[in-house]
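Work Package 4 report. The design task specified in the project plan requires that, given a folded chain encoded as structure tokens, an amino acid be chosen for each position. We show below one input record used in the internal validation round.
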């Protein structure tokens, strides 16, 4: 599968230039020339307004220079025709294998598929085929509006569909959703859940899901191997509804399974590579309470589909006494969510009809609407984070475990400079009085064991003079109930029980979350205290990648409420500080100067066929992106190549003392962090990755190819090509030989 951006002039003008440039393979010089694909030709439209074809009984309702929108009134299903290529995508399958029951047939054809909840908290499908539905359809210049009402269930809504310059929008205004009855309530709403569907392997291509950095599921015949698909809440789980689960522990201390990746951006996509037609779907409204669903063929039906499911109400468990084992009730939320629901489909054709084209379109979209900002410093830096102090049990209280002092950091910076490692970004964790888990932090007061506030301020200023960016870490979400009163500050779940996060560690066995309003006042108080000292580099965590519903002071608050507080908070803090965020959700990307802890891998679900650097393609060249800590990667050779492939900068978590000192603290799972152990690794990563970064600085990724044998080929808009071989054998590509587990860079 070869993917190139033919419609980006800069990428191909530079690639048309046949010249020898800088080239290297793990430090050895090999030069090559870049071959071109020939002249770029602008295709004429296959269809004009006078020659539009009839497609599966659907009628033309709107047309523009690029697309034609068809619609069938019976079920409001749509077809989008690309006029340039003649290819089209359907929202319902035209091929019927005649194996499906009435419920599934209706789900495949209906523009809207709902889950409804009755008084007994039982759920059932509602659709436009099997139910008694009235529809009032109004046609517009760009599409149609349909006022829909389920007469038996007594609820309804308005669906607005519009053809745009780049595709299609499907929109349900919140004010149009009505529930007149008392016997049935709306649980979930799915809009065009079978958009772009295909039967078994009748189409070549894949579904894109936002797992980790990005993953694809091919449209081949899965032969019924899977009984479940991808179903993940956008922006992470909602702890307001989530029941506690038992962790998989080794020796009652170490978690043996990694958590699955959170969805960081409200997107999904689908590509028909044989027709060279694809779409990227962006959930513009309602993402805070929606999930991405992907089902390869063989799961319930033999059709591939990927879509968004909006949650209007949830069923939750309410204990009937303090002893949860004695009984509980299943209850439905009294009020539904209140938000517009909107999906934007950006259609891509030709050589853009792939995940690289989707990522480029998403980048352009974010830049245009201000969700990404231009002008950030994208120059290469190695991230070297430090831990200050932790705590272990001692007599009637705790005592400090000092891992890295301010003086230690000065010495490490000086030593790295002597090695030639000068471009550094650092985050200092556990600097505060009381140590790493003395949370929340409301005042700029450093632990005396690391040198105190005065010495820490001097360190930050001294680092700045040397070109090192040193940030203080502040988790504005967590409260430690053993150190601070949580009576009026901690989050309660929807069932009014306090949320507690078990740590399975010796010193502090549980942590809690602050209500958003308390996070806001505490962080703003800290920022005021911190910036008074003449320093402003700040790293904020917790509120950057967590959303939840909660109960407080007699009121129920939704994830929309949490998001609004965190959004305003980070915007305010970013104006007063130099702010970086830990793994931020998409709606906060405009507030951060760097992205920390970008996932490199996917969650490795059995149905995922390949990982792709989707988010890296979106952000590379716009903001600096740093990976998760190299210390804890099992296969460091592969991880290094992943950093090359994705353009992500390296990250290390360092302590002056041996990590064995942490064995009786809550950081007991940090098994390797001593600077003396990682000194040479930091230098080697810095030297090699900086070479690549210097060649690609300021450029975007405009091509990504997945070849057989473990080969990846990445193309940048300035003409640089990177060849990476994850395989066990040497491979040949473009007259170059790339050895096993190695890479080559060619300009």
């Amino acid at each position: 599968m070869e993917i190139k951006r033919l419609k980006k002039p800069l990428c191909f003008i530079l690639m048309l230039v046949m010249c020898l440039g800088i080239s290297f393979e793990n430090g050895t010089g090999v030069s090559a020339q870049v071959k071109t694909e020939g002249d770029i030709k602008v295709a004429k439209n296959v269809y004009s307004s006078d020659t539009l074809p009839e497609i599966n009984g659907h009628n033309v309702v709107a047309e523009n220079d690029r697309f034609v929108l068809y619609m069938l009134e019976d079920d409001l299903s749509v077809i989008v025709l690309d006029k340039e290529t003649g290819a089209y995508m359907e929202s319902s399958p035209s091929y019927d294998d005649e194996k499906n029951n009435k419920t599934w047939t209706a789900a495949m054809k209906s523009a809207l598929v709902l889950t409804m909840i009755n008084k007994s908290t039982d759920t059932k499908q509602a659709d436009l085929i099997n139910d008694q539905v009235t529809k009032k359809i109004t046609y517009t210049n760009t599409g149609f509006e349909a006022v829909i009402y389920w007469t038996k269930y007594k609820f309804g809504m308005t669906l607005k569909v519009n053809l745009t310059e780049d595709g299609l929008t499907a929109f349900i205004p919140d004010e149009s959703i009505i529930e007149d009855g008392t016997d049935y309530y709306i649980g979930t709403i799915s809009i065009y859940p079978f958009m772009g569907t295909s039967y078994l392997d009748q189409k070549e291509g894949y579904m894109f899901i936002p797992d980790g950095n990005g993953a694809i599921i091919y449209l081949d015949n899965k032969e019924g191997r899977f009984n479940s698909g991808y179903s993940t809440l956008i922006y992470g789980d909602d702890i307001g509804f989530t029941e506690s689960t038992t962790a998989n522990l080794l020796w009652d201390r170490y978690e043996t399974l990694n958590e699955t990746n959170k969805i960081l951006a409200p997107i999904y996509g689908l590509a028909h590579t044989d027709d060279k037609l694809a779409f990227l779907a962006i959930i513009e409204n309602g993402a805070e309470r929606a999930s991405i669903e992907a089902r390869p063929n063989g799961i319930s039906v033999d059709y591939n589909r990927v879509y968004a499911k909006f949650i209007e109400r949830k069923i939750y468990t309410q204990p009937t006494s303090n002893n949860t084992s004695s009984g509980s009730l299943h209850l439905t939320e009294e009020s539904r969510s209140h938000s517009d629901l909107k999906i934007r489909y950006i259609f891509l054709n030709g050589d853009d009809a792939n995940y690289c084209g989707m990522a480029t379109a998403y980048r352009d979209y974010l830049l245009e609407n201000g969700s990404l900002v231009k002008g950030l410093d994208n120059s290469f830096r190695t991230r070297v984070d430090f831990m200050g102090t932790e705590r272990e049990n001692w007599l009637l209280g705790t005592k400090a475990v000092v891992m890295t002092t301010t003086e230690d950091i000065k010495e490490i910076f000086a030593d790295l400079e002597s090695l030639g490692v000068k471009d550094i970004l650092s985050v200092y964790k556990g600097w505060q009085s009381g140590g790493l888990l003395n949370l929340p932090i409301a005042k700029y007061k450093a632990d005396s064991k690391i040198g105190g506030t005065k010495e820490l301020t001097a360190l930050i200023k001294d680092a700045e003079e040397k070109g090192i960016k040193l940030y203080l870490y502040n988790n504005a979400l967590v409260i430690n109930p053993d150190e601070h009163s949580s009576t009026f500050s901690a989050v309660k779940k929807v069932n009014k029980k306090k949320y507690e996060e078990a740590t399975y560690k010796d010193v502090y066995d549980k942590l809690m979350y602050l209500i958003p309003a308390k996070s806001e006042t505490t962080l703003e108080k800290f920022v005021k205290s911190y910036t008074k000292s003449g320093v402003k580099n700040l790293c904020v965590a917790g509120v950057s990648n967590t959303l939840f519903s909660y109960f407080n002071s007699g009121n129920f608050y939704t994830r929309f409420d949490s998001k609004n507080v965190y959004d305003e908070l980070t915007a305010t803090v970013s104006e007063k500080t130099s702010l970086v965020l830990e793994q931020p959700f998409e709606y906060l990307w405009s507030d951060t100067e760097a992205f920390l802890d970008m996932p490199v891998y996917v969650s490795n679900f059995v149905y995922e066929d390949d990982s792709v650097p989707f988010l890296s393609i979106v952000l590379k060249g716009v903001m600096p992106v740093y990976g998760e800590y190299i210390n804890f990667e099992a296969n460091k050779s592969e991880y290094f190549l992943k950093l090359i492939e994705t353009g992500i900068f390296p990250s290390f978590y360092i302590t002056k003392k041996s990590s064995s000192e942490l064995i009786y603290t809550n950081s007991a799972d940090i098994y390797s962090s001593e600077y003396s152990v990682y000194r040479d690794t930091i230098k080697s990563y810095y030297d090699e990755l900086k070479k690549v970064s210097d060649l690609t600085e300021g450029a975007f990724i405009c091509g990504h190819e997945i070849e057989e044998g473990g080969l990846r080929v990445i193309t940048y808009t300035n003409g640089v090509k990177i060849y990476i071989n994850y395989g066990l054998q040497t491979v040949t590509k473009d007259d170059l030989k790339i050895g096993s587990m190695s890479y080559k860079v060619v300009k």
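The two ends are 22 Å apart (CA to CA). Validation will be extended to a larger panel in the next phase.
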